[in-house]
Amino acid sequence: MDPFILFLVSVILISLSGALAPGPLLFTNLSNAPRWGWKGGIWLSLGHTCIELPVILLIAFGLSFVIYLPLVQLIITSLGSVVLLIFGILQVRESLTPGEQADQEDLAKIKPTRHPFLIGFIFSAVNPFFIVWWFTVGANIVLTALLFAALFGVIIMFLSHVWIDYVWLAGTAWATKQGAHLIGSKGYRILNAVFGILLIYFGIQFGYNAFLLLGLL
Fold it and tell me: pLDDT in tens for each of the 217 residues of the chain?
C-alpha cells in the first residue's frame, strides 16, 4: 500500500481513538440530544472545527520553517510517542473500570446551555486535552503530512481527521434521542479499550521513528 495512504489510515485510527474518549463535547452532546437532535452534533463539530483548523494551520506554518531539522523532528516525534502511550494506557484503564465511565445520571447533571456552535467553540478552546493533543501527537501528524506533500498533505490530513467529529457527534446524538444508551455499555468499554490499544501501538511506532531519527543527529 502507498505510504501516504497508510499515513491517512493511521490518522483516521488515531482520530477515532480521540473521538471515542469521553469528554465535555460528547457529554454535552448526549445530555442535550433530546432537545438538539443530530443537528446539535453538527453544530458542536462546527464550533470545534473553528478552533481546530487555525491550530493546525498555526502548527503547519511554524513547522514549515524547521521541517527538515532532525532535532526538531526528534523532539516532536518523541513527545507524540509519550503522549500517545499515556493516553492509550489511560483509555484502556478507564475502559476496564465501569465506575469511571459516564452514565445517564452523569449526563443528566449537565444543564442545557447556549447554542451548540458556541459550546463547541468554547469547550474546544479551553480543553487541556485538545491543546496537549495537537501540540504533541497532532504536531507529529502535521509534520508527517508536510513531509509527504507540503500544504496539500496537511489539507488531506485535516479532511481525513475532521469528518470523524461530525459523524460521531451527530450519530451519538441521533442514537441517544432514539433511546439508545451508548455511554457506559459493555460494548462501548470494549471498543474504547480496542482504540486505547491502538493508541499504545502508534505510540510505540512513534517511539521507533524517534529512535531512527537519533541516527541522523
Answer: 788 999 999 999 998 877 777 678 888 888 888 888 899 999 999 999 999 999 999 999 999 999 999 999 999 999 999 999 999 998 888 878 765 444 444 444 444 557 899 999 998 898 888 888 999 999 999 999 999 999 999 999 999 999 999 999 999 888 887 765 555 567 777 877 888 899 999 999 999 999 888 877 6
Count of domains forming the chain: 1
Q: Rounded CA gap, 181 and 214, in Å?
A: 48
Q: For residue 31, give the nearest of 125, 112, 93, 148 by alpha carbon.
A: 112
pTM of the model: 0.85
Place of cell 500544504: 151
Q: Which domain holds residue 165?
A: 3-214
